Amino acid sequence: MRVVVTSDVDGYAADLLVGKWDSIRVLGLATGSTPVNVYGRLIQRYYDGTISFRTKRTFNLDEYLGLAPNHPQSYRATMVRDLMQYVDLPDERFHVPPGISDDYAAACTAYEDDIRAAGGVDLWVLGVGVDGHIAFNEVGSARDSRTRVVDLAESTVAANVSYFDDSDDMPTQAVTAGVATIMDAREVLLLAKGAAKADAIARAVCGDESADTPASWLQSHGNCTFLLDSAAAAGIVNSAGADATRAPGAGGREHSIEFLD
Ligand code: F6R
């Protein structure tokens, strides 16, 4: 795992994606507040003619259970607002797990099949929850978990309820890509900003690989970067030292740390 600490998470992430653009056929995306400005930068690069989405395919991590695609707080509608309405990705190449289905088990299997049929995800952009969740793989999620229906943790509901006008409308379940679905991606870029994420990041990078902190499973992904601001990196810096270039990980593993400013 590579850890990069920078005051410009959005700019670094956008530059990294644009730099690899031609080799990314299938892009995995996250919702949530963290990547929104990265998507804003990608929209700028689309408008200035640097990149096009026309031949890309995208898969989102998750969707609230019970929300129709056109519900304003559905993750599909959020992605349309934050990115898709501005760029030239054909609608049929934009995939989000189903929020509504007659048969969720079959729909989750179909989502995995669609990813596989597309050739797998080249790079998956992730955020992380304050409890260390990735996608909606909450605490307790196994490394071999696949796309499925899950219960949301109380901390996840608390972190997202403000997006809903009426708190009773906030779903307490979701359909999420699994840990194994994410681990299958050829590259993973996890973004974290702010002090609220520092504990989860420290456990994910320096703790044991365990279902107690689902993001820790990424330690054994062969091509994973954690891109952090200094507040989110504070817990790692406490264990490794501000000028250290390696952070300890599980099983005697060490992770490189680069401080860009
Ligand atoms: C969203 C997702 C979640 C978020 C996480 C952080 O698709 O998969 O894991 O990335 O809850 O959310 P923010 O970025 O709002 O702090």
Description:
By secondary structure, the chain is of the alpha/beta class. The protein has helices at 9-19, 36-47, 75-82, 104-117, 154-160, 179-183, 198-206, 234-240, and strands at residues 2-5, 26-29, 57-60, 62-64, 94-95, 123-126, 148-151, 173-176, 188-192, 224-228, 246-248, 254-259. It has a single domain (2-259), classed as Rossmann fold. It is built from 8 helices and 12 strands. The strands form 2 sheets. Strands 5-3-2-6-9-10-1-12-11 form a 9-stranded mixed beta sheet, with helices on both faces. A 3-stranded antiparallel beta sheet has the order 4-8-7. α1 crosses α2 and α7 (198-206) crosses α8. The relative contact order is 0.18. The model has no long low-confidence stretch (mean pLDDT 96). It binds fructose -6-phosphate (F6R). Fructose -6-phosphate (F6R) binds next to loops.
Helix % is: 25-40%
pLDDT averaged over residues: 96
CATH topology: Rossmann fold
- How many alpha or pi helices? 8
Please write the string of helix (H) and strand (E) elements. EHEHEEHEHEEHEHEHEHEE
Find the structural class using helix and strand composition: alpha/beta
General form: globular
Provide tags for this entry:
261 residues, Rossmann fold, nine-stranded mixed β-sheet, binds fructose -6-phosphate
Brief account:
This protein is of the alpha/beta class and 261 residues long.
Q: What's the SSE blueprint?
A:
Elements: E1 2-5, H1 9-19, E2 26-29, H2 36-47, E3 57-60, E4 62-64, H3 75-82, E5 94-95, H4 104-117, E6 123-126, E7 148-151, H5 154-160, E8 173-176, H6 179-183, E9 188-192, H7 198-206, E10 224-228, H8 234-240, E11 246-248, E12 254-259
Parallel strand pairs: 1-10, 1-12, 2-3, 2-6, 3-5, 6-9, 9-10
Antiparallel strand pairs: 4-8, 7-8, 11-12
The protein binds fructose -6-phosphate.
